[in-house]
Amino acid sequence: MAAKDEKIGIIGSGLIGRSWAMLFAGAGYQIFIYDIESKQIDSALVDIKQQLQRLEKEGLLRGKLNASEQFKCINGTLDLKQAVQDAIFVQECVPEVLEIKKKVFKGVDDICDANTIISSSTSTFVPSLFTEELKHRKNALVAHPINPPYYVPLVEIVPAPWTDPNAVKRTRELMEEIGQAPVCLTREIPGFALNRIQYAILNESWNLVADGVLSVKDVDKVMSEGLGWRYAFLGPLETAHLNADGWMDYCSKYTNTIHSVSETFKPLPKFEGPQTKVVGQQLEEMVPIQELQSRRNWRDLCLTKLAALKNTLTPKH
Q: Percent of the chain having pLDDT more than 70?
């Protein structure tokens, strides 16, 4: 596989921006990472090179180019125009501050042409909040990656009310090309899909600990040693489908139980007050703050090996 001529702009050289750069480089695109500080870019390039070399050494490198070839595809720049002009796709990865995103999207919009897709990595803001005033707003959308993006393939593609369906289609095709697993929402909704489901799990996890039903460690074990085993391969709806003689049979057997248990759920909690310290203390007993990075590294290795396993086992529907 040879490198491509097409250009991808990455705005922001933090952890998410670095992951996006690696993903696009794996497919041979020419990447320009923009940031406002040269030391930030330099640090990002050093980290990316080390990550690619480590992944290659461990046999976990994604894409068909080797680590050296992928790294040659990645450039750093302090010039927004250099990152954006003639790019087929621009991925914004700046902090989750609405005014910053508005400023960045305005700057990109002033430079890009009518065919450039302008995408945000945001997990917090629906795209209409920062794309309404753009002249190229029909090409603006959200492509929300899951942290860490290089190791978790899901990408949520979220259109604004004015996003051209063709921009969604092109984004989905691009995500599939670089090895991600896109899902397309038909309209914007707060929290998108993953966080809405994740928040429901977090809320009930909080309540089980707050009510003294389970410890933090045991709540997490319910997922890591139970639900998570199934959900790593099947979603909750297909899981239910397989747990009975089809979905209709599942509903006929369990609808009353699900409804009656759900009626016992408490009002939505807010993660504040003394209970946050209780949860925090138990989590720090499990993983001390100084060991977070080593735990993240272990997590990323597990995710990479799981991806390799899934590629050998998962039937393609």
A: 98
pTM exceeds 0.90: yes
Of 228, 229, 246, the closest CA to residue 237 belongs to 246
Tokens, residue 137: 């707003």
Architecture of the 7-184 domain = 3-Layer(aba) Sandwich (3.40)
**pLDDT the model gives residue 59:** 86
Q: Are the C-beta atoms of residues 10 and 20 closer than 8 Å to each other?
A: yes
Cα distances (Å, whole numbers) of residue 9 to 18, 168, 183, 219, 279? 12, 18, 22, 41, 40
CB-based contact 9:34 (threshold 8 Å): yes
Q: Candidates 3.40.50.1820, 2.30.130.40, 1.10.10.10, 1.10.1040.10; correct CATH number of 194-286? A: 1.10.1040.10
The pLDDT value recorded for residue 316 is 61
